[in-house]
Amino acid sequence: MSHRARLSHRPTPAHRWAWAVACAGWATLAPPAQANPSWNAEAQQWIAQQLAAEAPAALPLRPEVTVGQLDSRLQLAPCARVEPYLPTGTRLWGRSRIGLRCVQGPVLWNVFLPITVKAWGPAWVVRQPIARGTALEASQFEATEVDWAEGGAPVLARPEDWIGQQADRALAPGQVLRKGMVSVAQAFAAGTQVRVRVQGNGFTLMATGAAITHGYVGETARVRMPNRKILSGTVRNADTVDISL
Would you say the pTM of this structure is higher than 0.70? Predict the structure, then answer.
């Protein structure tokens, strides 16, 4: 799994404009075979515009696009205007393609141009072996930059999305933390005696009840009180459920 230099910054919002500026210099590596240079320039500009429109607003992603080549066996007729488009069901993400169609010429044609879209952004990489079921801590990971498009699952870039949760599988050093690798840790099982902490404006009440659902940190659990009344609250830890009034 490839990754790059360690990050020294935290994700910040509103990077859509920066993404669009970065796009302006993209896709200069491999011009399509049998294509007019102006077609290639139009394709590059179109890709930049599309990716700028799709750029995530919440996290900074640094784009990198490689334009491939058309099939060398193609013999395309001259065309006064070529229109790029995104084929149905295709994303500008990872190994992909765009369509080029002639809309003004003696012979109308349609071809597909392969491209590779990388999106470099913040991520967390495993530092040491982590066993399944282990509660995750920041010290077990290293902040870095990876290609978000390299894997199928979304990257867990924000620490609040995984710290305190548990590993759903054994994690090896070098792995990038992605969705599907972690889940909320179970704090207690149904039937466990737990404390119920009721907090209101200027007061706190404590009582004990029996959990009637499994409890997961940060999620809602139901508790049966001694008077048989059932209350719902947020699981705080292995023995406490909080209720705010």
Answer: no
What does each C-alpha distance from 134 to 97, 179, 211, 240 come to in angstroms?
41, 16, 23, 21
DSSP for the chain, written as a single string: ---BSPP-S---S--HHHHHHHHTT---S-PPTT--HHHHHHHHHHHHHHHHHH--SSS--EEEEEE----TT--PPP-SEEEEEPPTT--SSEEEEEEEEEEESSS--EEEEEEEEEEEEEEEEE-S-B-TTPBP-GGGEEEEEEEGGGSSSPB--SGGGTTT-EESS-B-TTPBPBTTSEEPPEEE-TT-EEEEEEEETTEEEEEEEEESS-EETTSEEEEE-TTS-EEEEEEEETTEEEEE-
Residue 76 exposure: Cα atoms within 13 Å on the Cβ side = 25
| Digit-coded pLDDT (tens) for 23-51 | 433 333 333 334 555 666 677 778 877 77
Q: What are the backbone angles phi and psi of residue 155, rounded to the nearest 5°?
A: -80, 140
| Token pair recorded at residue 138 | 């920041």
CA pair distance 195, 125, nearest whole angstrom: 37
